[in-house]
Design goal:
Layout: E1 19-24, H1 27-38, E2 49-53, E3 59-64, E4 74-78, H2 81-93, E5 98-99, E6 118-122, E7 128-132
Parallel strand pairs: 1-3, 4-7
Antiparallel strand pairs: 2-3, 5-6, 6-7
């Protein structure tokens, strides 16, 4: 089998993440949960996947896995500062506890890392989700 790529399909500078699969015990529940928190929409099913388009060319493709336990992963989302409070409000409305730290020891608080704000919370399958308004400063 041959596959021909068009020049416009290729990244122009570096590799870009296009999508990743997120395992869920109920793909609809998990996709709708994240979309609700982030203020996004759940896309149409694509084969066994249910996508949440993050708006930067990346989708989280929720895949339902019912035959084995879901291994917790970490997903971090850089969000606009002016939308952060709304996301915290939506977490509170959903009855979801958020934390200032990744180990979930400081409930109901946000952090101020790198001059921004951030919070961690669990999705329905225990994935450790993070929203942050400033990217991490890396050495």
């Amino acid at each position: 089998m041959s596959y021909t790529r068009h020049a416009t399909d290729l990244p122009t500078t570096v590799a870009h993440l296009n999508h990743t699969a997120v395992y869920a015990s109920d793909r609809r529940l998990s996709a709708e949960f994240l979309a609700a928190v982030l203020g996004l929409e759940v896309g149409a099913p694509f084969g066994p996947f249910l996508p949440v388009d993050l708006g930067n060319g990346v989708t989280l493709d929720y895949y339902e896995m019912t035959d084995e336990p879901i291994q917790s992963q970490h997903y971090a989302f850089l969000v606009p500062d002016e939308q952060f409070d709304g996301m915290i409000d939506r977490l509170e409305a959903l009855g979801v506890t958020y934390y200032a730290d990744p180990n979930h020891t400081r409930p109901g608080r946000v952090n101020d890392l790198f001059g921004g704000r951030g919070a961690y919370f669990d999705d329905p399958d225990g994935h450790n989700m993070e929203i942050m308004t400033r990217p991490y400063a890396r050495p």
